[in-house]
Amino acid sequence: MSNDETSNEDPKGFARGLTNYGDKDFSLYLRRSFAKSMGYSNETLDRPIVGIVNTASGYNNCHRGVPELVEAVKRGVLLRGGLPIEFPTISLGEVFLNPTSLMFRNLMSMDTEEMIRAQPMDAVVLIGGCDKTVPAQLMGAASANLPTIQLVVGPMMTGRYEGERLGACTDCRRFWADYRAGRVDTAQINAIEGNLATTIGTCAVMGTASTMACIAETLGMTLPGTAAIPAVHADRLRAAEATGAQALETARLGLTPSKLITEKSVENALRVLLALGGSTNGILHLTAIAGRCGVAITLNRLNELSDTTPVLVNLKPTGVGYMEDFNTAGAMGTLLRELQSLLHLDCPTVTGETLGERLQAAPGFVDRTIIRSREEPFEDVGGLVALFGNLAPDGAILKRSAADPTLFESTGRAVVFTSLEDLAERIDSDDLDVKADDVLVLQNAGPKSPSGMPEAGYIPIPKKLARAGIKDMVRISDCRMSGTAFGTIVLHVTPETTVGGPIGLVQNGDEIRLSISNKSLDLLVDDQELERRRRTTPLKPATPARGYAKLYADHVTQAGQGADFDFLMAPTKA
Ligand code: FES
After folding, report:
1. If you take atom 3 of ligand 1, which residue's CA is the nearest one?
2. pLDDT for residue 151
3. Confidence of residue 5 (pLDDT cuts 50, 70, 90)
4. CB-ligand 1 contact for 94 (6 Å cutoff)
5. Mean pLDDT of the region 415-444
């Protein structure tokens, strides 16, 4: 029997997965005895168990509301006759982690997987939200393959500064660019700092956290209509109660992640990612989640879908609105209805309904300034495009919906930074030889580099150009950028510098050609010269001596495989 099949004879509740003392009856007796020390009655101990993953942490501002959500989930479980038991896992607060949160996503996924598997529970509710937590939880739950339902913490509300709406973190970057260019002074930037992130919840725009919440809903892993409810809204608590109440039913139906995360639902999620103008991190995380279920995503398929999926959502950083606007505009139900003819509607969801059945519900109010119809899209093609060429033989990603179209077909002179340290040291130097039509290249920042693929691809415009009013340039790297950032920024260049990718061979003054119409990225240097450079350019991989950093450096895969660990991915399904 495979691990996603259960029979009526399988142990339930506290009798599941007994501690091994060589005597099962003794193990159960001892477990119940110790459980009784927590005050449980015999009646309670006989109930089915719903585990609740509690990711509250003093280092995760986005999850400040998790304790209240846990209580609401518990209420829902109790209403249906189950026993709710919360347990902690690692929590990842995006801006509190060094060197970068991505490095710990796989660790959180392992923690989540193993604690679901090791502890007795019949179903699990994952409470996540901040960028890496939702993919980490889905990756871990997919590998554990117990009936699972996810609840996201929901987005922040916007703040105000001198009458202007502000939301983390697109506006963080916009004002910081203005500060660097001298358009905003120190007193103003200090005042703005206090108004960017003013409530509980995840970043207020369509950044990585919101993108992943929408992807989780599209995959069928959350209750319908819950991705965009603001963190502070009472509906968020009602969604938590309903999630707890659903968990046992999801278990009864045997709806494990492997039944929901399939080739078809992953393709639906890609469509949604493209229609949202969603985060570039979304493709990395979705690839890693799908990989845990043996579903491979290719960048060629991404391009095929992107050519036929319009951008319909008008949120920052691609457009103008915030997540609170998306929620009141009709949220995921409206978006999915607009995309209906492009989706696989027979995909099951965590309630047992198919996606198609879910969409038969009457559409409510729709705000067309935020969610457009298919007939009048914001963009005719998807928000992301994959690029190939001799600079990125295995592909690179550009968020074209957040880029400057005047730079889509351009050839420029390379200005190369060989590491993050080199970038920090020289980018603002008055001596830097750089012009507005140059191409900034950052090397040695991919998954296997010492920096672990940080969100440094949003290379700042050199100060002397920023002061002259330049707001965008073509920028290329093997690292990532925040889902809240914008610009003509080519990311995830693969293979990365550290494993010998051609991006590591670029030198100052080389010509680079970017063509969005051809989906190409080329280094205009002949093969002979590139071969000569390859022979003389030493690789500089991270070489940590011990611990998790060593595990990471030894086993992290390239961006095209989601930067998951090679030993955690499932064999690809034929
Ligand atoms: Fe947590 Fe942006 S910092 S979602």
Report:
1. 94
2. 98
3. very low
4. yes
5. 96
Q: How far apart are the C-alpha atoms of 125 and 136, rounded to whole Å?
A: 14
Reply yes or no on whether the pLDDT at 50 is more than 70: yes
CB of 202 within 6 A of ligand 1: the answer is yes
134 CB under 6 A from ligand 1?
Answer: no
Q: Which domains does the chain have, with CATH numbers?
A: 47-157+199-358 (no CATH), 159-193 (no CATH), 386-542 (3.50.30.80)
What is the CA(168)–ligand 1 centre distance, in A? 8
| Residue 230 to residue 202: CA distance in whole angstroms | 9
Q: Helix (H, G, I), strand (E, B), or coil: what is residue 74?
A: helix
* Cα–Cα distance measured from residue 364 to residue 478, given in angstroms and rounded to the nearest whole number: 43
For position 471, what pLDDT does the model report? 93
Summarize the confidence of residues 83-100 as an average pLDDT: 97
Any ligand 1 atom below 6 A from CB of 274: no
Give the count of alpha carbons within 13 A of 469, CB side only. 0
> From ligand 1's centre to the CA of 48, what distance in Å?
34
Q: Write down the mean pLDDT value for the chain.
A: 96
Of residues 62, 64, 69, 61, the one with CA closest to residue 223: 69
Q: Verify whether ligand 1 is closer than 6 Å to residue 131 (CB atom).
A: yes
The pLDDT tens digits for 302-323 are: 999 999 999 999 999 989 999 9
Of the candidates 512, 543, 542, the one whose C-alpha atom is nearest the C-alpha of residue 525 is 512
Taking the CA of residue 210 as reference, the ligand 1 atom at the shortest distance is 4
Percent of the chain with pLDDT over 90: 93
d(CA 303, CA 316): 23
**Mean pLDDT value across residues 435-461:** 95
Distance 208 CA to ligand 1 centre (A): 8
203 Cβ inside 6 Å of ligand 1: yes
Going from the Cα of 197 to the center of ligand 1, the distance in angstroms, rounded, reads 9
pLDDT of 211 strictly over 50: yes
Residue type, 84: P
Pocket test for ligand 1, best of 66, 108, 130 (most atoms within 8 A of CB): 130
Q: Is the pLDDT of residue 18 over 70?
A: yes
How much is the pLDDT for 1?
Answer: 41
Burial class (CB in 10 A: 0-12, 13-18, 19+), 364: exposed
Atom of ligand 1 nearest to the CA of 202: 4
Q: Record the tokens describing residue 453, joined without a space.
A: 């693929």
Is any ligand 1 atom within 6 A of the Cβ of residue 97?
Answer: no
Q: CB–CB of 148/176 below 8 Å?
A: no
Taking residues 157-166, what's their average pLDDT? 93
Closest C-alpha to ligand 1, atom 1: 130
